[in-house]
Design brief:
By secondary structure, the chain is of the alpha/beta class. The protein contains seven helices and seven strands; from the N terminus they run E-E-E-H-H-E-H-E-H-H-H-E-E-H. It has one domain: Glutaredoxin (3-Layer(aba) Sandwich).
Length: about 200
Amino acid sequence: MPINKARRLQPGRTTPGRTLTTILGNPVAIPAPDQLTHLQFRRFAGCPVCDLHLHSLARRHDEFAAASIQEVVIFHSSAAELLPFAADLPFAVVADPAKKLYAEFGVESAFRALFDPRSWIAIARGVWSSLVRTLRRKQPLPTMNPKGGRFGLPADFLIAPDGRIIASKYGSHAYDQWSVDEILAQAASGRSVRLA
């Protein structure tokens, strides 16, 4: 499927306020009224590449709290499918099996998500890490045929309390998203722009 760049939300655009429900049944406001929101779109429940990235964020979650960043992760799986994989993550995880938010934010799928050579090392590391957690009975095996497909591309948005998008990134392959350091740098840069 070709990427429709016209649907992408660029910095300066404003997103409407909303309250979503996490997979644990808790409300989460987007944007957060008193802090920045890092909204990221991932793929399916148990996606090894997504899990690899999210565990890197979880290890440094205290840095997000110290920088006053609310972390919210969207998956195109149901809450029931996500719970065995994401219930212990220290940030909000939201199920969007109908991909309504994906469409609203212009997040798409492409065959190259998994077939871009730049993603292969992360895929191998993710599969290995996922297999180890499965063998240790910390999670089930992910489905081989996820609803919503396997070819989702990641996307990141940093949103100010007024709903304005400060920064955005649309990934070109499955492991093309902001790192923790990039998120923190975007947040620091966004704050300086807002205060100027």
